Amino acid sequence: MGRHFTLTDLGAHARRRAWLRRLAVAVVAGLLVTAAWPLLTRQADRVVTGFFTATVGVYPNTEVRVLGVPIGSVTKVEPRGTNVEVTMTVRPDVKLPADVGAVVITPSLVADRYVQLTPVYLGGPELGGDARIPPERTVTPVEVDELLGSLNQLMTALGPKGANRDGAVSDVLTKAATYLDGNGGKLGEAIKNLGEFARTASDSKDDLFNSVDNISKFTAMLAANDGKVKQAIQQISSLSKILADQRDQFSGAMTELTEALSVVQGFIKDNRGKVKSDVDKLAEITKLLTQQKASLSEALDAAPNALANVLGAYNQGAGTLDGRGNITEFSGAK
């Protein structure tokens, strides 16, 4: 027997089909909203415009990075007078400092270049939208042909058509090699001792500053005695006039001095080994001074007081250095 449907059954079936249709429409609408929500709520990329002196190897779609991490790309490169305008889009979630700069990076000779935004954001004002980076905050790498051109100019200037036309550069290198041959260790030791001496002087900088302060006071005293200083200058001027009148005699003395220097040069040439020995002894003396840095420091401590005592002993009215001794302290000596 066939199945018979009543009007009640047909109505219930129609309501169930309508509910299923509404449920399907709601599910499809929910899926569409879920898929479109990120697109609807996504913030637009920020536009940053940089002005470079040159942009060799930078094109649209060139990556923009921070600390090597891509955050955007170049969208347009156009010349603007003496500069090149590079338009970049940057992700809105990346924070950049207001004074950010742009550097064109060349990882290697064959790798693609990219634009690095630096420094990273550590706090403070942020870079806003549609920002502009002036040429003062952009840097482009030195091209290989420019580097080779500069190197070629240097080699030409030092070559046979330049400074070495008469062999001057070759002579300097040859003599330097001769003088430094075998003396590398001693030269290194001397430099080391010089560094230790500089360190010792740095440790005594307070005493040095006190000495400078005392010298400043001494200079102030000279300024207070300006009349006497002018008198001394006039006397020096008179001495200079006498020297000018005797210039012929000085010319003869200079000629003799030149001859003496020639003799000294020959002496040094003939006694190079002994001169080297003296230099070695000087290095030992320098090392000894370094070992006695405590004594030097004590001397630097006492020098300002000694200078202050000399200044206190000076009698401006009489122009003398006054002092006094306690003779009675020797009365009980046996």
TrEMBL record:
Ranges of residues in domain Mammalian cell entry C-terminal: 131-314
Task: Say which domain of life the source belongs to.
Answer: Bacteria
**Mce/MlaD domain location, by residue?**
48-119
An annotated GO cellular component of this protein is: extracellular region
**Sorted alphabetically, which Pfam families does this protein's record hold?**
Mce4_CUP1, MlaD
Q: Which UniProt keywords apply?
A: Membrane, Transmembrane, Transmembrane helix
**Record-annotated membrane-spanning stretches:** 20-40
Q: Which InterPro entries does this one have?
A: Mce (IPR005693), Mce/MlaD (IPR003399), Mce_C (IPR024516), MlaD_Phospholipid_Transporter (IPR052336)
Task: Read off the PANTHER family from this record.
Answer: INTERMEMBRANE PHOSPHOLIPID TRANSPORT SYSTEM BINDING PROTEIN MLAD (PTHR33371:SF4), INTERMEMBRANE PHOSPHOLIPID TRANSPORT SYSTEM BINDING PROTEIN MLAD-RELATED (PTHR33371)
**What is the protein's given name?**
ABC transporter substrate-binding protein
The organism that produces this protein has a lineage beginning with:
Bacteria, Bacillati, Actinomycetota, Actinomycetes, Pseudonocardiales
